[in-house]
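Researcher: Here's my situation. A collaborator sent me these components and asked whether they could plausibly form a single complex. I don't have experimental data yet, so a predicted model of the whole assembly would be a useful starting point for our discussion.
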Amino acid sequence: MDYNSFKNAVAAAAKAQGIADYELYYEASEDCSISTFRHEINQFSSSLDGGVCFRCIVDGKMGYASTEALGEAEAVSLVSRAADNARTLESEDQVFLGQGGQTYASCPHTCPEMAPTDLIRKVALEGDALLYAADPMVADGSEAQVVSQKMSVAIMNSNGLDLSYESGSHIFIASSVLYDGTELSTDYSIACGDLNTMDIAATVAKSVAKAKAKMGADVAPTGAYPVVFSPEAMGSLLSTFSGVFNAERVRRGLSRMGGKEGQVVASPMVTLVDDPFYKDSIMPLPFDAEGTPTYKKNVIENGVLKTLLYDLKTAAAVGKKTTGNAAKHNYAAPVGIMPFTMYLAPGELTEEELLQKAGNGVYITSLGGLHAGANPISGDFSLQSSGFMIENGVKTKAVKSFTVAGNWYNLLQQITALSDEVKLPGFPGKTAFASPAVLVEGLTVAGK
Amino acid sequence: MIAKDICERVLQEAVSTGADYAELFAENTVQHSINMLDKKVDSINDAVIAGASIRLYKGLRSVMASTVDTSEAGLLRCARKAADALGEGTAEIAISLRERLYGDIHPVRIVPSTAPNSEKLVFLKDAYFAAQEYSDAIRQVNGTFLDVDHRILIATSEGLYAQDRQIRTRLTIQAVAEHNGETQTGTCGPGRRMGLEVFTDVVDPKETGIEAARQAVTMSKAGYCPAGVMPVAIGNAFGGVIFHEACGHSLEASSVAYGTSEFTGKLGQQIANPKVTAIDDGTIPGAWGSINIDDEGTPARKNVLIEKGVLKTYMIDKFNARRMGLPATGNSRRQSYAYTPTSRMTNTYIATGTDTEEEIFGSMEFGLYAKAMGGGSVNPATGEFNFAVNEGYLVRNGKICEPVRGASLVGKGSDVIRNIDMVSSNLELAQGMCGSSSGSIPTSVGEPLIRVSSITVGGR
């Protein structure tokens, strides 16, 4: 059964079961991925994924159920499961479904169509060849991977909301393994955009250069000194701690930003932006998971917390307006709150000037174990790091296997400079995190 | 789930362009979780995951296509797509399936997917309020009751037609405690490959809540852990995450077969301290990471990975078995039909040794006792790993002293398994979710109390 027939079956089932307030959320994705090993195509995968989530209000509670099996019987079961779940809930929060008839911004940039398999294959082999040609130390295990994907979202509800949206992206990932006879070093670089115009060679070169620069790394000495986080490293830290700006988590006592709107929470040079239409976003979204129009906002402006991120329920509970940040981790998840592309606004120094300002310290290019070594509730972190020493204002020898420790809430205050170029690192998605290079004083490094 | 004759027609279509091996994997999973927050049932997640995938091998090439359309026409389309991706050729094998029944060594008395919410809520609330009422310092409790009913079917061009049903139940309590304006958390999440009876027969839900709250309250009063290189005693059960990260992932064929593991080419060599014997065992009845058959239809096994420090075997899936010229070990796993399966862990642990607790602490002049561990991660190529200490204590002159917070341990896998120089006998398993290229899967980690003679402790 296709989605449109299923939609009608669900509407009929809801009516038959006496459910007046409901919503159907549909998400589907198509993707094709090819990766190489030793100059050949090693793996090919192609998938068609998708499912629907039904939610309904019964006795003032919002029940959810979801499925990937679209059929007549499943439509009936979906509705009754959601209603049954609603009856089990005890939360007294007022719940809402979005209203139809709202106006939405149009996306400023277009996304590419699915790439033909031949093109995906060609670019993967080209990337593989470029990898091996880039440096004599490039070893087996190096891999070029090309992904083409298409995503679609549709929301339909009993308040007249009926929205749909499609986007797509091409992604190229160059993973390098370098071997000098005694030591292996690995790194990767990602490019997003249109395969026809993507700079494959530059992405490969960057990946190999990053892995090469790490060779011969020593353990950093233990101590407290200035730390510069690369855009990648700060982006991953921001991703881990972005939940502190989630109004629902604040309301539940799971963030220390409670009661801080309008107050200073960061150093005056910190401005934190959330933008659904960020220029490099692979999924610029005109509406959120409740159908609210999305817009760009400053979460922190010159150190002052301007707003938390809200959805309809949380905003109503604390007497605010939604910021259009309702989101789902996947189609089956209940509506929560997430940023779109969240980034630290650029500062005024070039990266060289930033290093000069740091003087003697450490430049961290990558952080590991963020899901374990960072606690989003307390703000404490102690994270595996690698990068370079900074000596007399310049990057010197590579260092690894050390940790950097601090507290996110304090770190926001300890930022003393930001570089002038924001980069969107990491793996792209609906939610993404970007940053310039950031200088932080007063963190502890543990190594040898 | 899908009739044998349909599977035969689909596989025949799949091998039509010359694949030398074809597999159909189909799944129907019911996943249900109830969440409590602010002392109330806050949300329920209730999902049906259903779909299928076709995989083909030709020599050292592999192709996978997946779909949510499990009608015969949908499966045939999916098979065609995979066959086309493999290239141009003609069928070289004929498909004839024979049903095989594997015994279920994980009996389930109360199937959770058909039990009402109210039965699960009894256990969740017992645990939840035990945590909430543990101390006035508890500011918030987040509790989740999860049950999964995962039915799989595997049909292959080798003639296998087999099914398995994997039922899992888990209760997770996270408690938040506050002391002088600072918040700290504690977590406890026992689970089994069992039905609801786990919470009457094996695990007391109240103890789960109390343990999470105790950890949060203890940590809220702790100072920061000092930084530096020192000896560390790692507590039993979840402490086994050290082996999982420092060594386990690097013994998976997905790294070894490509030369991107620091243990490639080391079979038969002394890679660890002679005190270390490490096992991956998918056959432990009722254990969280257990399976009857893996996601390629290979029966689960008990694999001794390291015996007295010597590397005995890797964990190998069918595709990488080809590249390595070694047999599959029953370790091929995937989160769902939408992921390409690969070699993964099941229940992995360090076996019991003969050192005593007194000897281990007695040997430490100054160090850290990592009583409860959090998760971690590793780069198998370089062996660099990290993991977090959820509950730590300083050890001075053989005595366990004050609690410390915010510590993590980092190092290189091949170094740290040489430095595990004392192993006691109180082996226990603990449950976790392990994330890797084939998705998030349930695995157990485990160990008795061990000592690592020297490791970098990240603190401040």
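Model: Some features of this prediction you could bring to your collaborator: The first helix of chain A runs from residue 3 to 16. The mean pLDDT of chain A is 94.
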